[in-house]
Each structure stands twice: as C-alpha cells, then as structure tokens.
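Reopening closed ticket. The problem is back. First fold of the pair:
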Amino acid sequence: MKEMSNKQKKIFTNLGGYKLGKDGLFVDSKGNKLSFELIVPAGWTDWIAVSQVLSSQLKQIGIDALVSQVDFGLYLERIKNKDFELAVSWVNYGINPYLFYERWLHSRNAFSGDNRGGWNSITTDSLLDIFRKTSDERERQLAISSLQLIGLQEIPSVPLFFLIPHGLNIKHIILWDGLMLKILMLYQLLLEWTKLL
C-alpha cells in the first residue's frame, strides 16, 4: 500500500477512531476492518471488472470492499429492501437534463427506478417540479444548475464510468450543459484518438 498522508489518516481517525492495521486496512478499536460488501449482478462482466478494480483501489487506501456477484433479481430485491452497503448500478440518460435528473434524484424513484441509492430531498424534488412546470428558460436553467450542484456537492452516488449508447453522436447531447457535456466530449475525443493507434 502507498504511504498514506497524515491528513488521510486523520480523516479516518476522525470518522470513528479507525487506525491503520498491520495488513494495511483500517480497523476500529475492537479490531474490526473497515469493510463493505459491494454487490454487482452476476454475469455482468463489465460491471464485475469495474467492481474488482474499485475493490483493489479501495484496498490501496485501507478499505476492504468485498465484491459479491448476485443474481439480478436478488440484486434488485436487495436494493429495494435497502439490504446493501455498496452497489454498482446505473442511471438512464434522457433526451434532456430533466429526464436524467428526475430518474436519478426524484424521491418517488427512491430504491427503485434509477434512484437505487434512495436519494430523498425536498429541495431536489422542488427543483425538478419547477423545471417541469415552467416554460421560462431562465428558471429552467437555474433549476438544472442547482441540480448539478447537488450532484457535485452532496454526491447522491459516485460515478464510476460513463457509457455512450451505440449510435449516439454529439448532436444528441448538445443540450446537456456543464460537466456531463465535457465528459461526453472527452469520451468522443478519446474514441477518435484510439482509432489513430
């Protein structure tokens, strides 16, 4: 394991008295490892690979993440019943930012739909309602900008990777402002660059 900075060690110590154990993993005062089960649908090889990489990276900073491949039906049931610690999941895109944020963050979709993490916020719901009910472009832009800030500051879920659906080109996503557009443009550039190799 790489040497952890004093600042990093202090963060974990302040989060419940964890200290670095002999095996490089954080342990509490009773010797229990800082460990989480990371569920992923069995047979989803790309997600399993991402989960294994994530587990390896977390181990490098002293966190044990055990990858559990579970049947897809059980995966959905465990999420719905809040019977999970970590899960690799997805959010469906939409033809505009409202559809994306509504699926990802609206409380009516908590633990189902695309809001599998169970995000529940009156503020978020209100911003989505403003966007849906008004035709004023300035109000809509303010609502979407506020939702972007919530996504970045409050982190309802952690993005691991972004997949561009087959056949999607840059014209389809020009309405997506801010970070999402930058990620898509970067991805498009990387695809073009790999063709040159």
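Second fold of the pair, where the issue appears:
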Amino acid sequence: MIKKAKKSVAVGLSVALAVTSVNIPVNSASAAAKKAKLSATKKTLTAGKSTTLTLKTNKKKAKTIKTIKAKYVKVSTSKKSVATVKKVSKKSKVTGIKVTAKKAGKATITVKVTKGTYKGTYKCKVTVKKKASATKKPTQKPPEVPTATLAVTVEPSVEPTTTPAITAEPSTTPAITATPATKVTVVNTSNITKSDDTFTVTLTLDGTYTNEQLKGAKVTLTNSAAKVTTTATFSKIDVDGKAVFTVDDTKVLTPGDTTANGDYKVSSDSEALVISGNVVASYEESLAGNKIKGYVLTDKLNNGKYDGSFKNAVAGATVSVEGGQSTTTDAKGYYELPSVAGRKIVTISKAGFVTKYLTGTKRVYVNKSHVTSQNVALEHFDVRKLTVNVKAIDKDRYF
C-alpha cells in the first residue's frame, strides 16, 4: 500500500510539472492592432501614371482620415527611379499621398505618422509596368466591286430582246467610329490664391495629362453661403502635373469687406473634365493693411475718456465696423478686425455697460493699406442716470 501511494504521488507531481511547463500563448494581436490603414497595400501602375493613396480608419466601414496634421506625416519611397511620392494636404491637414510611376520596376512606399491617434508606419508595394507602345493598325482597302459586262447577241431575223441589267451588290464597309476624347478626372483642389491681380485655383488630376487635352476647359466656383459664383479657365499644367485655372471675374472676389470668403464648390460642364465627388476650394480675401485695432477699457474716472490703465480692460466686448465684420475683445480688452477704407461707424457693446457708438464727427477714419488705432472707454451702466419721460392723460377721454 505504501509503495502504491508513493507511486501515485510521483505520477501526480510529474503531471503538475508538465502542465506548468506549457507556454500558453497570449493573444496580443488586438493590442498591436493599428487604428488606421492605407487604402491599398499593393498597387500596379503604368509608367507615367499616378494614383493617390489615403489613410483610412481600420474598421469594417472604413472612413478616410483627414485630421492628421501634415507636419506629423512623413512619406518616402525605396526607389525614386521607379516611383516618387508626395503628400497632398489641405489647410495643413493631409488628405492623401500621391504616388507617381516613373519606370518599370518595384518600390515600397512608406507613410509614417509620428504623433497622435494614428501613429504608426504604413506601407504599400508598388509595381510599375512599361508604357505600352502604340501600334498602328493596318488600313484595309475596301474590296473592289467587279463591273458586270453584258453580252448582247443580235440575230438578223429576230429583234434583240432586252436582257435585264445585272446589279452587283455593294460590299458592306464597316462604319468608322471616332475615338471619344480622353476624360480628365479632378480628385482634389487647392485654395483660391492671389498673385498681383490674378486669382488662381489648382486642381489635382487622376493622372498625367497635357495642356492640349485641357485646352479651353472651364470650371465654375460657387459659394452658396455668400451667393457668389464665378468661373475659371484652364491656364497650364504645372511642374507637379496639376491643372492651374485662372479666375475670369476677379471683382466678385474683392468686395473689400470679406463677404466673399468661404468654401467654393468646383463643378464643370466641359466635356473634357469630370469632377470626382465634392471638390471644394476655400477663399479668404486679403484686405492688405485696412484694419482697425485698439483697446476697450472701463471709464475709471467716469469722464468718458480712455485712461490708459490695462487693469480695467473690458474682455468679451463686441466691436463692430459699419459694412464689415465684428469681433470680441480678448482678456486685455484688445481687438483687431479688417475694414474697407473710409470714415466708418464703430459700435462697442457689452452687458452691464452703456453701448458706445462712434458716429458723426467721431467716426473712425480708416486709411487705405494702413492700420488705424482706436481705443475706447466704456461707461458702467448706472440706473441712477436713467431719464424717465412721464406723460399724464385723461382716463375719461381715452377709456
């Protein structure tokens, strides 16, 4: 019995040691899972063509990520001679990664996000094929139609009979169909920018095209909120392969009071252009030096004059300029806003203070291309200074 007990204990210890020596794998895949992915991990291109990759959320219903700052995104290629890569950004946020095929071969495109929720390294293997050489199809001559010759036999005693004419059926010649013009697809756009007196908008295309293919093309720029519409005509293909359009009517973009600012939807009726999705260009009017700036402070001495003490700043006061914009003062009572040139009425208001109107001879004179300083002192609202007009009436007369 003692020997059997010892044997059982030995077997039990052996089993326990065997169990404890087994390594149980820990599923760390979910911990290492990335929150983002590239729109493609493999891509095949023809030399001379390009494609735009995007970062998407790593979910079943993936959405394009457009919130990563451009300075936190680095792109590179393993072989510049095969494929080049560059960031496509809008308002300092990355909207895509453009890959351009150069020559036949293979290259790896690397996108590295250095900071934020989507921090990580993403790669796409690109295979570039040779551009197919154009071969001329041999032209076929239409088959010759044989001419039917009628033999007429005349007998001396019998009048010749009329032999029916033989009509040769013409051979069927295939109809020649004209090759449709190449459609150029617009996938993205820059903001509307100004250089001297010229306004331009640059459109990103889905491939490589020539000036001839876009000659005469037009786009329409529409700002529904500001009720502003203008057109732009194709100018040239720039060094990056993008299409530059020049705005036709610049007056609608320069009202002088920034009312034309906002987002402009790009559309086109040109046969050569196709706008992919919702392509929007932003615009902000530059008013050069036309500005009013200054401080809004309390009337410390209650004499209606600015006393120069920053300890009495009025923060959160609303400052409005006639025919222009309005803004709110900061913690030090400072404000700054654009204005068109001329004598302007300025209104300053805040709850608990008497609203001040700079009108008449006190209107602010805004010099063209200059910054005009205007400090304002606000008086605290005091019910003791209210004036009440009382009128007595005869109730029997009115009731």
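Update: turned out to be a display glitch only; the data is intact. DSSP finds four helices and 28 strands in the chain. Confidence is low (pLDDT under 50) at residues 17-32, 176-180. Please close again.
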